[in-house]
Amino acid sequence: MLAVRVTTWDGVKNYQAQGNLKAASVGDFAFFITQVQRKL
């Protein structure tokens, strides 16, 4: 994402999260958590 600098976020189903994303501005900080389970 650093190289692209602009990306589209789709598939966000939580309405509160959608509102927060719409309210975000350029220069705002973000915190990302991914929850991926690997099969062993």
TrEMBL record:
Residue stretches making up the EVE domain: 5-32
Gene3D superfamilies: ph1033 like domains
Pfam families the UniProt entry points to: EVE
InterPro entries linked to this entry: EVE_domain (IPR002740), PUA-like_sf (IPR015947)
Protein name: EVE domain protein
The species this protein was found in: Anaplasma phagocytophilum str. ApNP
